[in-house]
Specification:
By secondary structure, the chain is mainly beta. The chain has a single domain, classed as 7 Propeller (Methylamine Dehydrogenase, Chain H). The chain is built from no helices and 28 strands. The strands form 7 sheets. Strands 1-28-27-26 form a 4-stranded antiparallel β-sheet, with no helix packed on it. The protein has a 4-stranded antiparallel β-sheet with strand order 2-3-4-5, with no helix packed on it. Strands 6-7-8-9 form a 4-stranded antiparallel β-sheet, with no helix packed on it. A hairpin with a 3-residue loop joins strand 11 (107-112) and strand 12 (116-121). It starts with a strand and ends with a strand. The mean pLDDT is 95. It holds the Pfam family WD40. This is WD40 repeat domain-containing protein. Keywords: Repeat, WD repeat. InterPro entries: WD40/YVTN_repeat-like_dom_sf, WD40_PAC1, WD40_repeat_CS, WD40_repeat_dom_sf, WD40_rpt.
Length: 298
Amino acid sequence: MRATTLTGHSNPIYSVISHPNENLFYTAGNDKGIVEWDINLKVPQRIFKGIKHTVYALEIIPNENLLIAGCNDGSICFFSLINSSLLNTIKSNSAVFHLKYNALKNELIASTDKGEILVIDPTNKKLLHQFQSGYQKVRAFDFHQNTNILATVSNDEMIRFYHLDDYTAISSIKSHENGVGSIAFTSDGNTLITGGRDAQLKIWDTYTWKLRNSFPAHLFQIYKIAIHPYLPYFATASRDKSIKIWRTGDYSLFKNLSVEKSKEGHILSVNDICWTNAGKNIISVGDDKLVKVWDFEV
């Protein structure tokens, strides 16, 4: 797979997100700003300023024209995608590691370093609800409308399940040793994939919550699992400097995008990845301060 390398950040990059409707994507990290890029021209368009701390998470709410950043001081910053202005800030008690918008309920969900889950009204930018999902870092969570389940993963080795409609607890499973850092439902909602600090991928049946499969996927912690928007593939990013693309049918390896296998690979930890909305590219960011846009072909 061919990659185009984009420079411009002067510090490690921790988050990347693709716009769901436009040919744009956004990157942020320790630069205390968010960069907007054109996916076709592969050049920066705008810089969103006003952030005073490191950004760990990004989310886009297209119907509200909002770009949202979660920061290491607990700030959740709301920016206008129209004029790039900072509209409002909500403050949590600790670093924000993940953000995701639930369009059916018009709710923004955030997770923090101390296990807090925040439910926010993005229109009024008000906190609606807050609860604990353990007391250690919740680096990631995911939900699926078909199952009506929110699943969180924590450094305490647990996966916890909640009803998506009212956030009441359902159950929990002890999973990866030394902590769980990444999670994703497959598109059909039948399977949950988790990645841990043990470098393992685990495949769970969402009807029985039984473990279907477990295998070593990387050499070090898995930071992100990204499901392809419409094809039966998913990608993983790791502290071992590599990106791997897997088949969802049999979980076999499709591509290894490491510096050893691909000269265009990252030379330091890969902190985040995302697919473009058309599914033709995967974008990666890392500690090497680089953005890479990979051409994806089956």
